[in-house]
Write a structure and sequence with these properties.
It contains eleven helices and 15 strands. It is α/β, with parallel strands linked by helices. One of its GO terms (molecular function) is NADPH dehydrogenase activity.
Length: 418
């Protein structure tokens, strides 16, 4: 009997089964970058994820064929997780009118379509749930004139009268002055995160990330510069992190126990030199220590975006170094069940490899065990990459080739293997 071109299981159409998934190391003793990681019930075949990237191309919050092609391009070329862009939990939480959303049921099906394809290739799909807060109702970046207003006015489907924030403090020149949220508004948005998470599960996503970075709503609650509230959501550290913790609890309760939950933060708002009270790495470490207890599995360490006056100390590991600092602090405190994701300017194979190197933290029965104390020096457990995937959707395959690791290629592309 001739060998059968077998169908991928559970796919809604014929596509050849892809087993093992693309990006799986075939050679023995691969570097950690190409070893699997299991988080709850989900196994990732390597440590390279596609970071969320807004495309400003959705149709009233619905993903389109553009997103299907854009996201699938990374997934079937071997990223072990591809995270859908910031997806708003309410209409006024979009950055631009063309952002992705999950505030209504009709937005489930187009995500399901992406999930079906990604799963048909044996790969995993994540989604980032977000609310843009005081950075909402802007136009797509390629339309925004530097130094001029970026506001999406009503005639281009914006909502300048309904931009909300912890306090009525404008993000910067050219943005909409936001309204201070009432406690009811806060409750509505927390509910929005819960309901959107339920819809994401219905859509078939494997992983949820909560967006608490880059000056968007949850991030702006954390900082005393953007949050001047005098109720239980402002003032002390405990009060400023309250909304984020409520969102985490709501989302964790709404998703299956086996589904990984990630949180992305701006580990510092880069205002230390101007405002000593600002949100800094120490604040993030304090927050991070609370996260495993709330069922968060991984902290995705980004930075900045909460203040136009930020002073970034720019060098290639400006952000991955912070991830390492946080990971080391957690290890020192005996906290080993919060994984760390590093992101930012990772473009080279050797850099990606070294970020997770010496990080022989392995997952055993859902707890992270350290084989060797030395391993605490790894900066992260996962690398997330954004722009390099836009340049090279096949980046995982290129990295493997550069590092001399034999990895599975797509069946259909086998004749082109490097
Ligand atoms: C086009 C574009 C869109 C982005 N959209 C998002 C987003 O939706 N959510 C988010 O948390 N970060 C977003 N980012 C930030 C990236 O996820 C990433 O953190 C950043 O680009 C640094 O990584 P890189 O140097 O690999 O690009 C975006 C970046 C780019 C380039």
């Amino acid at each position: 009997m001739a060998p059968k071109n077998s169908p991928a299981p559970n796919a809604p159409y014929f596509t050849p089964v892809q087993s093992p998934p693309v990006g799986t190391a075939i050679s023995s003793n691969p570097p950690i970058l190409f070893t699997p990681l299991k988080i709850r019930d989900v196994t990732f075949q390597n440590r390279i994820w596609v970071a969320p990237m807004c495309m400003y191309s959705a149709s009233n919050g619905h993903l389109t064929d553009f997103h299907l092609i854009h996201l699938s391009a990374f997934a079937y070329r071997g990223s072990s997780l591809t995270i859908i862009e910031a997806t708003s939990v309410s209409p006024n939480g979009r950055i631009t009118p063309e952002d992705s959303g999950l505030w209504q049921d009709s937005q489930i099906a187009p995500i399901r379509r992406v999930a079906d394809f990604v799963h048909s290739q044996g790969q995993k799909l994540g989604i980032q749930l977000a609310h843009a807060g005081r950075k909402a109702s802007t136009v797509a970046p390629w339309l925004a004139d530097r130094g001029k207003s970026v506001v999406a006015t009503k005639d281009v489907n914006g909502w300048p009268d309904d931009v909300v924030a912890p306090s009525a403090i404008v993000w910067g020149d050219g943005y909409v002055p936001p309204k201070e949220m009432t406690e009811n508004d806060i409750k509505d948005i927390v509910d929005g995160f819960r309901d959107s998470a339920k819809r994401a599960v219905q859509a078939g996503v494997d992983v949820i990330e909560i967006h608490a970075a880059h000056g968007y709503l949850l991030c702006s609650f954390l900082s005393p510069i953007s949050n001047r509230r005098t109720d239980k959501y402002g003032g002390s550290f405990e009060n400023r992190i309250r909304m984020l913790l409520e969102v985490i609890q709501a989302v964790r309760e709404a998703i299956p126990i086996g589904m990984p939950l990630l949180v992305r933060v701006s580990a510092t708002e880069w205002m230390e030199s101007q405002a000593p009270e600002s949100w800094d790495v120490e604040s993030t470490i304090r927050l991070a220590k609370l996260l495993p207890g709330l069922g968060v599995d991984l902290l995705d360490v980004s930075s900045g975006g909460n203040n136009p006056a930020q002073q970034i100390e720019m060098h290639t590991d400006f952000q991955t170094g912070i991830a390492g600092r946080i990971r080391t602090e957690l290890f020192k405190s005996g906290i080993r069940d919060l994984l760390i994701g590093a992101v930012g300017m990772i473009t080279e194979a050797e850099v990606a490899k070294s970020i997770v190197e010496a990080g022989k933290a392995v997952e055993v029965d859902q707890t992270i065990e350290i084989i060797d104390e030395q391993d605490a020096v790894a900066k992260a457990d996962i690398v997330l990459v954004a722009r390099q995937f836009l340049r090279e959707p096949e980046w995982v395959l290129r990295v493997a080739h550069t590092l001399g690791v034999d990895v599975q290629w797509p069946n259909q592309y086998g004749r082109a293997k490097l």
